Amino acid sequence: MTIRIAVDAMGGDNAPRVVVNGLHHLPEGLDVEILVVGRPEEIAACGDLPAGAEVVPATDVVDMHDAPREALRKKRKSSLAVSVGLVREGRADAVVSLGNTGAFMAFCVSLLSTLPGIRRPAIAVPIPTARGHCLLLDAGATSDSRPAQLRDFALMGKVYCEQVMGIESPKVGLLSLGEESSKGNERTFQATEMIRELPLEFVGNVEGDDIPRGEVDVVVCDGFTGNVVLKFGEGLMEMVLGGLQGVLESQVKNPGDREALESILKGFMAKTDYAEYGGAPLLGVQGTVIIGHGRSAAKAVANAVRAAHRAAQHRVNELITREAAALETSGKEAT
Amino acid sequence: MTIRIAVDAMGGDNAPRVVVNGLHHLPEGLDVEILVVGRPEEIAACGDLPAGAEVVPATDVVDMHDAPREALRKKRKSSLAVSVGLVREGRADAVVSLGNTGAFMAFCVSLLSTLPGIRRPAIAVPIPTARGHCLLLDAGATSDSRPAQLRDFALMGKVYCEQVMGIESPKVGLLSLGEESSKGNERTFQATEMIRELPLEFVGNVEGDDIPRGEVDVVVCDGFTGNVVLKFGEGLMEMVLGGLQGVLESQVKNPGDREALESILKGFMAKTDYAEYGGAPLLGVQGTVIIGHGRSAAKAVANAVRAAHRAAQHRVNELITREAAALETSGKEAT
């Protein structure tokens, strides 16, 4: 099945060059049709597009620093708006952008319906752990999540983790203050009861340190907590690795050791970068949405497109909808 | 002024030995009276106590794994309960324990009143940043914090930071989802309005990555978020530094470089350990409470006692009460 993917050519720090380059990094034989959305002359200046890619013109561009609400109101003709619009119109199955995350999310929430049975979308971010990656959601699509929304997140995270990250029967945990079910707040108490009813491997509460330890494959939390945790982790890694790099340059004398350590530190940094896994999906909306990172390189663009391809091909949304519907008919629905 | 400090001799991983040793690390001339609480024979087996220290017998011990509620009910004669009781009875100004944090908090909340004008206590934890330390509160004393409680936390954090950490006019930020005041949830929107009225340097919203960057001196958040952030950071540091240490052993050949790097990594770990700053205060209760870390060494015990001494000597609670009262009379009180 050919997957049609709208790619916002103008989003990200080195757009459109990095985006166009990225498309050339896609594996041979990937059954995709790419709609490259943006200013045709700027895209053309970046060289030929790969076979199967065509330009969809869009005159305006959302800047990285545009306020989402402003962008939503004033930039209806931006490459970002047009890209999301292609999914809304059914002309694309998926959309990828490395641009302004807030504006991207705003356009998706505004233009795309939520899936039947799903209350709110969630950003799901793969976080590096000692054992691989763990999918954390919601990382900030919603700032106040109700318990039933957390239940939806658990269901969506499980499906995405299984289908796209390839983890069978992923372990799902609810982020809270202690492993005992008596620990937490009103939201987690209620969410625990609801998630327990889902057909998935729910391990109950997990604590903050269980995330980097890789105790679970999916971590469910409200969007406020998820966003804070994600950004705190980014800042902490920057502080530690940045600090170590400085020390390295001044203290390690042996050139071979310096090289070895530099490559190790780079590896750690890469592990915390979106580039490695190709972006974060916005789950729960009609169509496949992959949010790339503004600082991404060509490789990350290709990985984001592949993640979109995989999610669409594995019918993540269809599975989510089916599982949500099964809940409703089994009378386990709660609001 | 002599400060009387109750020290739970039986709390922590190597109690009572580490505690007794720690007392010998106190600086000469520190004007304190130490009440060493625990089993007299076990304390005596650890050698002489320093001058100015005396034993207060307690027959029972709270284990690290005792559930706080159970401890509260069944271990009224534990060294932890007796230590907190000494503050309640006015026989001590401050209490220090390296034992079970949850149980310690439970005894404090149960036995000690909150300060006038303060709704709920908060654990304030100094977090390492690129520029020094930042005081984060609440780190988990309350799991659902109301906006007015966040306002109290801001006030208490400012006073502690000024008086004990020695930072003049500390910058106070509210943890949220973006710098714009439009970002956040209902709780932060309301809290922002309230904190703005306080006589302190409020910079508005900060994001997760602003904490390790050291953008502010005090970070205010609800106890759920604070606890998750704190534990996530501990786990992340463990993962990164643990991973680097393993690589170091296998890849760095030059013995001098290995030694240098090992000491650097140890430095980073120490920076994230309670030992360096002597524990986290539980603010907002009658009496000075310092929560040490179970894995603390003798040096950390001494630092915790010094933090208690400093907080009591600088009349942190008196200042908090005065500022809270000033708010009430100025009509800025809200519930």
Account of the protein in words:
The structure is a homodimer of 335-residue chains. Chain A contains twelve helices and eleven strands. The first copy, chain A, starts with a strand and ends in a 6-residue tail after the last helix. In chain A, strands 3-2-1-4-11-10-5-6-9-7-8 form an eleven-stranded mixed β-sheet, sandwiched between helices. The first copy, chain A, has helices spanning 17-23, 40-44, 68-74, 79-88, 101-111, 147-163, 186-196, 210-213, 223-251, 255-271, 298-313, 316-329, and strands at residues 3-8, 32-38, 53-57, 94-97, 122-129, 132-137, 171-175, 201-206, 218-220, 280-283, 288-291. In chain A, strand 5 (122-129) and strand 6 form a beta hairpin. By secondary structure, chain A is an alpha/beta fold. The interface between A and B is large, with 57 and 57 residues.
